[in-house]
Amino acid sequence: MSRTPRSPRTLRTPRTPRALRRRAALLGVPAAALLALIPSTASAYPNPGTVTGSTVVHDPTMIRDSSGRYLLYATGGGLSYRTSTNRIAFSAGSDAFTTRPSWWSSYGTTEAWAPDISYHGGKYLMYYAVSTFGSNKSAIGLAGSSTGLPGSWTDYGTVYTSTTSSDYNAIDPNLFVDDDGKWWLSFGSWWTGLKMIQINPSTGKQLSTNTTRYSIASRPTGTKAVEAPYVVKRNGYYYLFASYDTCCAGTSSTYKVKVGRATSVTGPYYDKNGVAMTNNGGTPVLESHGSIIGPGGQSIMADTDGDLIVYHYYDGNDNGTPKLGINLLNWSSGWPVAY
Fold it and tell me: Which residue is catalytic, options 95, 227, 287, 315?
């Protein structure tokens, strides 16, 4: 979610609360048939897989627990919660935080944005952001839980902050753990773009011996609208997904998801055409099509049947209400293709 010179998130109830049309059909289709359905051109974008129930979300992040249950958190309140046993039917529950940390109010808000859930060392971790729309007086927080369920989270306070004099915005966090055991946190929205810092695995906060703030994507000319980084490693490359242009304007939203890749976690990241992501680069993964407007606020989840891209979009058939989108990703070309 961006918080800058872009218009306020009009849907703060959803931001208050981040190609197969039928997920059920997808689960039974042979792999060869799935490959035949993958879009062959960059302009062909799939509709979201079928989801039902409580699917009004913004900036979703999702994980599958050891019992096979899906836990999904999203922007809004004390971090809104959804759960599913089959990745199709979702139901709502209590927020992650039943009592919201008091330090949030120093950033002008009592709600949290853009969570990022993961599981490391026998514990669920959730990074999240607090800020106000259009401001970069912002903070990234961290919480931990043994179960990942609402009401079980212990807040660990701030991880990284920005002020109105900063040239970056400390929101939209994503934790990436590399094969060598090093932890990295990417974040950012508008201003000078997306950043990355190294994290101490024992604290979940910045590593004191490396205080470098790396720049990994930006738009130096024209609009500054890039945010919501998400990093994964596949087949020897690091892939940086990000949301471009504007969210939170219902059917007028122009959000889209782009990607670049690198051979080092801190970059430089380049798109399929060799354009640096620090110079307006990015290869499209999802864009508006038909009634699916402004897909973005994405996260990537490795599931039993492949990688998922989990995101929100604005439903052109429902007055621009933000809805949950889930698609599988195919990596056979060396670049992620949603289907």
Answer: 227
